[in-house]
Design a protein that fits this description.
It is a single chain. It is built from four helices and 13 strands. It starts with a strand and ends in a 9-residue tail after the last helix. By secondary structure, the chain is mainly beta. It has helices spanning 16-24, 46-55, 118-121, 235-243, and strands at residues 3-10, 27-34, 37-45, 62-68, 74-84, 91-98, 105-114, 125-128, 132-137, 146-149, 158-160, 171-172, 179-184. The strands form three sheets. It has a six-stranded mixed beta barrel with strand order 1-3-2-6-5-4. A four-stranded mixed sheet has the order 10-7-9-12, with no helix packed on it. A three-stranded antiparallel sheet has the order 8-13-11, with no helix packed on it. 17% of the residues are buried. 13% of the residues lie in helices and 34% in strands. Among the domains are: 3-99, Ribosomal Protein L25, Chain P (Beta Barrel), CATH 2.40.240; 106-184, RNA Polymerase Alpha Subunit, Chain A, domain 2 (Beta Complex).
């Protein structure tokens, strides 16, 4: 497996104020520990470490670490942890782990999906439960990344650890039934609720009783609620008006 070369300097001092001064000088405090060595505090040049980090593909490759100022020589290491500033995202501290090429180790490897998901084509969203996987293997067998096909990932489907084809000699630390990817349906937009003080349209209230005139006769032609209703004339009065032409005769 290809190694990335990196030079570090042994650091004798420590403390909050000292490492703060190092960072202002564009240097990174670090430490190396692991197989066959006592922990050693280090100082890294920021641009050199950034170059090594880019060339190794995110932390999965082996690093040939050469430490000056101590009889440590060159050690094969992996990046165990990187601490970042919570606001500026600047690298604050690096942990290196020295490894033996003949002993298996645990390391986290990034995941990379391939293909097109039918669920995504329908408007779904991939839920990436894991962006990387912790695996166990020899240092010489560490993969740069693990590729996962999502070509059959539809709504209601999921990809589990047991569905992944791992390279030879690489075993997942997670259980076979652990979910890696799934597809969620897009969330439906809810109608906005009226804000306090906002006018609400009144509902039309249906009449529970049928309108009747003063004699108890039903009024069939009822207008909408709120409009004035003309009352029908009694039948006897209608007949009298019709006979008299609608006018009373005047006595002389």
């Amino acid at each position: 497996m290809e190694k990335v070369a990196l030079v570090a300097t042994k650091r004798d001092k420590s403390g909050k104020e000292f490492v703060k001064k190092l960072r202002k000088q564009n240097q990174i405090p670090a430490v190396v520990y692991g197989a066959g060595i006592e922990p050693v505090s280090l100082t890294l040049e920021h641009h050199e470490f950034s170059r090594a980090l880019r060339s190794q593909g995110g932390g999965s490759k082996l690093i040939n670490l050469k430490v000056t100022g101590v009889k440590l020589g060159e050690k094969t290491v992996i990046i165990k942890a990187i601490q970042y500033h919570p606001v500026t995202d600047a690298i604050y501290h690096v942990d290196f782990q020295a490894v033996s090429l003949t002993e298996k180790i645990r390391v986290k490897v990034p995941l990379h999906e391939t293909g097109e998901s039918p669920g995504v084509s329908k408007g779904g969203i991939i839920d990436r439960v894991h962006h990387e996987l912790e695996v166990e293997c020899l240092p010489t067998a560490i993969p740069e990344r693990i590729e996962i096909s999502i070509s059959n990932l539809d709504f209601g489907h999921a990809i589990h650890v047991k569905d992944i084809a791992f390279p030879e000699g690489v075993v997942s630390v997670l259980t076979p039934d652990e979910v890696i990817f799934t597809v969620k349906a897009p969330k439906e937009e809810k109608a906005p609720e009226p804000t306090p003080g906002e006018a609400i349209e009144p509902e039309v209230i249906k009449k529970g009783k049928e309108e009747v005139d003063e004699d108890g006769n039903p009024i069939k032609d009822v207008k909408a609620a709120g409009a004035p209703v003309a009352k029908a004339q009694p039948a006897a009065k209608e007949a009298k008006d019709a006979k008299g032409g609608g006018k009373e005769s005047k006595k002389e």
